[in-house]
Amino acid sequence: MAQSIDWMHVLQTKEIVGYIQELDLLHSWLFIGGAVLFVGISLLMKWRLLLTATISLSALIAMTAYISARGTDLEQSSDGIFMFVGGGAAIMFFFIYMLFMRGD
Questions:
Q1: Domains of the chain: which residue ranges?
Q2: Rounded Cα–Cα distance for residues 73 and 79 (Å)
């Protein structure tokens, strides 16, 4: 039981955001090149799921990096948490629209 609790500690939001920031994906030419390659292939092959997943993942990483750089301390009257919620909702709306509502 203790091993499962230790394993679940890694799944906390603070740990995941720290891991994403540690990777520094927005400044990695490999990540950017891979994302552009995925988008190009998915546009040519008309793979809507791959395109939607790639754009949504990139947008979530960019939003997390931007908001983390600004800070989310509510005592300083920061709007970071509201931008995170609003941006996340917009990205999820885009994801749902591209997968379920958009007709070909």
A1: 2-101
A2: 9
Kindly write down the DSSP assignment for every residue of 29-68, as one continuous string.
Answer: HHHHHHHHHHHHHHHHHT-HHHHHHHHHHHHHHHHHHHHH
Name which residue leads in pLDDT, 95 or 21. Answer: 95
What pLDDT score does 89 carry? Answer: 93
Angle between helices 80-96 and 48-70 (to 10 degrees): 180
Per the structure block, which two tokens stand in for 39? 């988008």
Contact 81, 74 (CB under 8 A): yes
User: How do residues 33-88 score in pLDDT, each as one tens digit?
Assistant: 887 888 888 888 888 888 888 888 888 878 887 777 776 666 665 677 778 888 88
Q: Is the C-alpha dihedral spanning 19, 25, 30, 34 positive or negative?
A: positive
Secondary structure (3-state) at 4: helix
Angle between the 48-70 and 29-45 helix axes, to the nearest 10 degrees? 150
Residue 61, token pair as written in the block: 């990483």
